[in-house]
Every structure is written in structure tokens, then in C-alpha cells.
Structure to design on (255 residues):
């Protein structure tokens, strides 16, 4: 993987956003790989393919690349709110590569991979509609709250210009892939509870420790009136998917 991008491609464009898109996607076509299989490359798609930038030539997994100059923090800008929510509900979300690049040197500083099945609805934050005077008046965008995605599924491919081996990235992807087996409607609960487990920061914890997140989970899932029951159920789901062990009744170990 080469950290340098072909900045000369930007010379043909007047728009900063368009030139950045062309340069970053050209870099992606030359450097991105599939985390789901052994393919060392991804195919770049036509510009009019909605919501996707690349596909794997072997397993046909879809990927989207989002680049920005600023640090990748707790939140990143995304597109239309409704489109993203519909994609999550229908299990049609692409795998995302989030990139931070240095414009002065046209080089990649950070690259984060989030698998398609790791986006809970709680992580999609609706933005205010565009003003009536805007070109797309009334359009509603969204931000992706990365801090609401379990840390297991935030896979560093490049961290402060340090490149992770493809083997390591694929191993981390396989580690979380059992989440894809869960029905999309239920998976949001599983992801939210897994995120809470990681935030506990304990190697071993009791079910009662998780009840500290009851109010928060009630707000994320207002249609469920039995949140503590749901927490217990989801801890069992995480155990069955290999994220937890059960030492004894009501006592869990983190893997």
C-alpha cells in the first residue's frame, strides 16, 4: 500500500471537493483491498453507481470511500439520512473506508474500515434540513457517529501513516463477521449492547453492571419496554457469536 496519491489529477478540476474525490478514488483503485476475501484489489465503479465506489472482483462485496482533510473523530459527514437508514434496515449498507489525507502532500494519514454489518441505526445522526434558499432546499443529510459503533468494528488500516498488514486487517474483519449472521432488524440491539460492553472496560462483568446503560438504551430503542430483558438476551447473543464467555449465571468474560 502506497501512502502517496497522484495529486496531479486535481489540476483538471476547479471544485475542491471534485478534485479531492478524483484523487482519493484513483488512490483507492490502486491501493484498496477486500477485507472479506483474499483479493488484493477492488474494482472502481462508474460514477453514477449510487452509494458505492468499489466492488470486490472475487466476492462482490461493496465498498464506499469517504475522504476528508480533518482528523477522523467521533463523527463523519455522510449523505442522505433516509438513504442510509433504508440501507441499514434492508441490510444493504456498503463497507466503508474512512480516509484522512494531507492536502499539502496528497498523502494518506489515516484509513479506517467499518464493515457493512456494523452500523446500528443509533449511529446515524440526522442533520437539519437545508434552508429554503439552498439549491437542494429541504434535503436532510446525516452524520455517522463512529463512537456509537463498537470498537471491534473500527478497523485501523492506516494509523498515523503506519500501515497495518492485510492479514491483520482481514483477521479483525473475520472476528466481527459473525454479526452479519444476525437479522438486520435485531442487529442494532446487538451492536448497541456490544458497544456498551466495550465501554465498561472490564475483562469480566456482571449482568447488573450492564443495567447502568438501561436509560441510554431506552432512548435508543423507545419501542421496547423491557430493556433489561433485552440486555440479558443480547448478552447471550454475543456469547453465541464468540464475543463473550459465560463464567457462571450472570457473570460474563470479554474475549
Amino acid at each position: 500500500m502506497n501512502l502517496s496519491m497522484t495529486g496531479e489529477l486535481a489540476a483538471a478540476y476547479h471544485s475542491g471537493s471534485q478534485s479531492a474525490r478524483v484523487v482519493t478514488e484513483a488512490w483507492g483503485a490502486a491501493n484498496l483491498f477486500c477485507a472479506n476475501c483474499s483479493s488484493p484489489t477492488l474494482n472502481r465503479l462508474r460514477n453514477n453507481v449510487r452509494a458505492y465506489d468499489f466492488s470486490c472482483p472475487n466476492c462482490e462485496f461493496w465498498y464506499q470511500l469517504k475522504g476528508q482533510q480533518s482528523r477522523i473523530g467521533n463523527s463523519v459527514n455522510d449523505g442522505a439520512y433516509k438513504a442510509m437508514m433504508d440501507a441499514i434496515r434492508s441490510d444493504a449498507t456498503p463497507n466503508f473506508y474512512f480516509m484522512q489525507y494531507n492536502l499539502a502532500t496528497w498523502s494518506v494519514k489515516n484509513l479506517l474500515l467499518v464493515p457493512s454489518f456494523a452500523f446500528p441505526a443509533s449511529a446515524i445522526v440526522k442533520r437539519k434540513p437545508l434552508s429554503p434558499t439552498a439549491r437542494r432546499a429541504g434535503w436532510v443529510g446525516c452524520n455517522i457517529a463512529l463512537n456509537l459503533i463498537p470498537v471491534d468494528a473500527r478497523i485501523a488500516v492506516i494509523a498515523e501513516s503506519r500501515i497495518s498488514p492485510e492479514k491483520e486487517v482481514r483477521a479483525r474483519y473475520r472476528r466481527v463477521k459473525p454479526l452479519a449472521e444476525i437479522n438486520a432488524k435485531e442487529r442494532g440491539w446487538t451492536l448497541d449492547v456490544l458497544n456498551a460492553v466495550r465501554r465498561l472496560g472490564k475483562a469480566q462483568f456482571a449482568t447488573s453492571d450492564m443495567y447502568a446503560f438501561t436509560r441510554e438504551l431506552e432512548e435508543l430503542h423507545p419501542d421496547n419496554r423491557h430493556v433489561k430483558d433485552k440486555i440479558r438476551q443480547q448478552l447471550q447473543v454475543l456469547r453465541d457469536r464468540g464475543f463473550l464467555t459465560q463464567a457462571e449465571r450472570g457473570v460474563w468474560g470479554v474475549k
